């Protein structure tokens, strides 16, 4: 029997939902009397909160496990959590020396699993129980100026390249009352901005406190009435769940920031169909036109995959033309990587690695061009910046504009303050601001 851990370290990979899950796991362990540490080498327990979206994610886990062995041959207790744990299950324990394996729908059981492992037994829980894990989690008590709030999990879209439906399960929406309670707790703990999270966050739906069915726009409007909350964001959205009510909220709700992350993945209709994306190039562009009609200054973001099986030069050129048509403020782009168990992993026509490399470089150059243009167009604009942390220079603070741009400025404002600034200069990925007044009310 080993000694129960007294300190812990959580290392989260991948998406913002993993960041949220990592925070909740940390809260669970702190509630057991364990102390958090930023030094994995000194921790009694290390939780690797994994992501399974990209190729070689599994091998990265084994590499990280190996690096946790100390010079004297000892190691901390190791828990592998998240989507790799869900996908690999007992295989992780067979290949590496770990103590706990827990999937993303079962991490509320982490304290009991750690106790089981301290008793000398391998503890594994990758169940997807019908009851929500969220009811077993303690109320939020700590927050920075920005906070994540998971409102929806899972995916029913079954894009042919994606493992999320298999590792996170079907789409599930958290209840209205629980979300408002958690949001209030976050604001009471210091959050000025809340980002609503979900694999398909705009698929959220639920009954409000009057029994009326609401979509994500209804939830946003309820949060808009929450005293002390200054900003609302949401991510990640699917084009098919972008309702007119949600579009209208971008024009009506002042606290809803002018930023929309709406993945498209490709500009080719044939590739989109092969991906099972269920939208077309034209329907996506028309949707963006509707959003811009109610919020002309909105910053648009997207996701792209290059080198999907069978993608031709002409189809990749369609993607570049879509990028030119949209003018993204920022975007994320990746080379296709086959994920075991997904339909696309068996598709014919793999694109050579060197072709994917060239296409990704072309795409990223176009996206960077548009990001720089968006930032340059913001120079001279007066806006508010939410201060999130200190900068590297004396008196320098860093924060975000409403359009999710990083802004640095010299100010005496504190973390969590909203500061009125003039945006005075733009770089490739950030802007400089000059404070207009000491502090916004």
From TrEMBL:
SMART domains noted in UniProt: Elp3
Reactions the enzyme catalyzes: N(6)-dimethylallyladenosine(37) in tRNA + (sulfur carrier)-SH + AH2 + 2 S-adenosyl-L-methionine = 2-methylsulfanyl-N(6)-dimethylallyladenosine(37) in tRNA + (sulfur carrier)-H + 5'-deoxyadenosine + L-methionine + A + S-adenosyl-L-homocysteine + 2 H(+)
Cofactor(s) this protein cannot do without: [4Fe-4S] cluster
Gene3D superfamilies linked: Methylthiotransferase, N-terminal domain (3.40.50.12160), tm_1862 like domain (3.80.30.20)
Broad class of where this protein is predominantly found: cytoplasm
Binding of [4Fe-4S] cluster 2, residues: 155, 159, 162
Annotated EC: 2.8.4.3
Binding sites annotated in the UniProt record for [4Fe-4S] cluster 1: 15, 51, 83
GO function terms (MF aspect): tRNA-2-methylthio-N(6)-dimethylallyladenosine(37) synthase activity
Record domain TRAM: where: 376-437
Domain Radical SAM core: 141-373
Family: Belongs to the methylthiotransferase family. MiaB subfamily.
Binding partners and assembly: Monomer.
Protein name: tRNA-2-methylthio-N(6)-dimethylallyladenosine synthase
Natural source organism: Sphingomonas molluscorum
Organism taxonomic ancestry: Bacteria, Pseudomonadati, Pseudomonadota, Alphaproteobacteria, Sphingomonadales
